[in-house]
Amino acid sequence: MHEKIIILDFGSQTTQLIGRRVRELNTYCEIVPFNKFPQDATGVKGVILSGSPYSVYDKNAFKADLSEIRKKYPVLGICYGAQFLAYTSGGTVESANSREYGRAKLTYIEGDNLLLKGVVPGAQIWMSHGDSITTLPESFRVIASTDDVKAAAYKVEGEETWGVQFHPEVFHTTDGTKILDNFLSICGCSKDWTPASFIEDTVKELKAQLKDDKVILALSGGVDSSVTAVLLNKAIGKNLTCIFVDHGLLRKNEFENVLRDYEHLGLNVIGVNASEKFYARLAGVTEPEEKRKIIGKGFIDVFDEEAHKLKDIKWLGQGTIYPDVIESLSITGTVIKSHHNVGGLPEKMNLKLVEPLRLLFKDEVRRVGTELGMMPHLIKRHPFPGPGLGIRILGDITAEKVRVLQNADDIYISLMKEWGLYDKVWQAGAILLPIRSVGVMGDERTYENTIALRAVTSTDAMTADWAQLPYEFLAKVSNEIINKVKGVNRVVYDISSKPPATIEWE
Q1: Which pLDDT tens digit goes with each residue over 77-127?
Q2: I need a surface site. Which of 120, 228, 236, 407 has the fewest CB within 10 A?
Q3: What pLDDT shows up at residue 112?
Q4: Are 301 and 273 in contact, with CB atoms under 8 Å apart?
Q5: How far apart, in Å, are the Cα atoms of 77 and each of 58, 84, 149, 153, 501?
Q6: What is residue 25's three-state secondary structure?
Q7: 42 Cβ partners below 8 Å, 6+ apart?
Q8: Active-site annotation, residues
Q9: What whole-number distance in Å separates Cα of residue 362 and Cα of residue 364?
């Protein structure tokens, strides 16, 4: 097994960001709940303690016994992690003044220090906690300060333990990546974890795990399932059968286009057009969660029916990725979100699960796909929800509404590609609103549908900002949709961010 860094998650919003920064430094890491250090510590080279929404002295604060970890591995405490190390070693942590929020500059840095090697006084950092260490334990030595915070960073004498009261993982800390890189060097990491090495290791593991067994995989046309299919195909070839179900809620011409792409990849794919079946089940249903359930159950039924036509299937392949796994196992034990990739199919079908991407973030999945030689338009595709246009048609679903939305969405996405905007946003799509409004076409008054356009920028969909698309572009899209899509006379643009809004409307 490859060497790895363990990140103990104390509930910070930026824990995943720490993980992504470490991975970008070609070092494999795993995020685990604060109290679940792995029993099998093979390959562990060091430990990072994340921030937290709590104060260390709160009665509800997350606490971990670090006695088995300190002195055995290099440890880096970030923000709450740094305060927790100091507090549990006899230091004091108190509520800080407001000047310790946001941007600050390191005014003092101890020379010849391994953690801050290459960082110079004046470097910008980002503070984000309402507390501060006011007295350090005896064996703790200050290695960096700001004007307002004496112990901005410290080192523990006699052990490879460090703490920083700022966030090196965020973009605003200018030398943050350098600090994390220095920590990985302290841990003795070889920094050789790359997409190529991931593919080599994963194909080897899949061959050993699956041997001559047969695997089925549900394809969605999205990045995750496509990369999963190509990886499995590389490992077991003809023993993989992929099933691509058209539930009638895909984008315009997507069924045919995706099947053509998969053929190009040499995959063994069965395409099933089940749109009539889905439209019949969805007739008259308007409640969003109910629609999701009907589409999800319908998908499982069709998939199950096709799977039963195949012989000796032992495994179900799934495109689960790391954020799905992290979200499904929250640190407090409550499930944040039941994800369509984590659960659903296997219980019903009595198949074993194989999830080759379950430890990768979305941007890593894309890099692996590129390394596998997949076409850029398959790799760079925007995320698309499992229920498809079913959750972009507000209210009940009919074949006619699907036609209207497919055509509007096709104009929007095609123009986005034409204007060079598609790769600049994380996700975009059109939504059909259950709102009709008065318009004028020619000399006649109309009373027709409204289309809302959505486009967001994001890195992992946990948070998202609305994309500030050019007015000229939006004007062009609006004109094209209203002129070419029968049944639409008004187009609006959604300027809500996540949170509080979600990316999808349902």
Answers
A1: 999 999 999 999 999 999 876 556 788 999 999 988 999 999 999 999 998
A2: 120
A3: 86
A4: no
A5: 18, 8, 16, 10, 32
A6: coil
A7: 1
A8: 79, 167, 169
A9: 5
